[in-house]
């Protein structure tokens, strides 16, 4: 899984699929049980994808581009 984060959009890509979400669709982002979850403004999941990227790195990328992380900053061991 690769994750590309910008102020305008988030693109998630696996070997054979790609998902793209405009930033205005995303209310919160969280990482739970090695799954990256994007939540819309109604509290519904936009997507839930298996993700083995470093939690700290994901957190930094999303927060740096203005996205709200649903829980506190992840530690380095998660």
Characteristic terms for this protein:
YqeB PH domain-containing protein; 3-stranded antiparallel sheet; 6 strands; PH_YqeB; mainly beta; 1 helix
What do these coordinates show?
The protein is mainly beta and 78 residues long. It has one domain. It contains one helix and six strands, in the order E-E-E-E-E-E-H. A three-stranded antiparallel sheet has the order 1-2-3, covered by helices on one side. Strands 4-5-6 form a three-stranded antiparallel sheet, with helices on one face. The model has no long low-confidence stretch (mean pLDDT 90). It comes from Streptomyces lomondensis. Pfam families: bPH_10. This is YqeB PH domain-containing protein. InterPro entries: PH_YqeB.
Quick overview of this protein structure:
This protein has 78 residues and is mostly beta strands.
Task: Walk me through the topology.
Layout: E1 2-5, E2 9-13, E3 18-22, E4 28-32, E5 35-39, E6 45-50, H1 55-64
Antiparallel strand pairs: 1-2, 2-3, 4-5, 5-6
Organism: Streptomyces lomondensis
Domain YqeB PH: 2-70
Protein name: YqeB PH domain-containing protein
Domains counted in the coordinates: how many? 1
Portion of residues within helices: 10-25%
Distance between the termini: 17 Å
Query: What is the helix/strand order?
Result: EEEEEEH
Low-confidence stretches: none
Secondary structure class reads mainly beta
Largest sheet: 3 strands, antiparallel
Largest beta sheet: strand ordering? 1-2-3
Mean pLDDT: 90
Query: Helix segment count?
Result: 1
Task: State the assembly state of the protein chains.
Answer: single chain
Tell me the total number of β-strands: 6
Sheet-strand content, in percent, reads 35-45%
């Amino acid at each position: 899984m690769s994750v590309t984060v910008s102020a305008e959009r988030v693109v998630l890509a696996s070997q054979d699929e790609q998902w793209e979400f405009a930033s205005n669709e995303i209310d919160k982002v969280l990482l739970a049980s090695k799954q990256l979850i994007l939540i819309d403004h109604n509290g519904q999941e936009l997507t839930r994808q298996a993700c083995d990227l470093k939690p700290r790195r994901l957190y930094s990328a999303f927060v740096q581009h203005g996205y709200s992380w649903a829980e506190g900053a992840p530690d380095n061991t998660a």
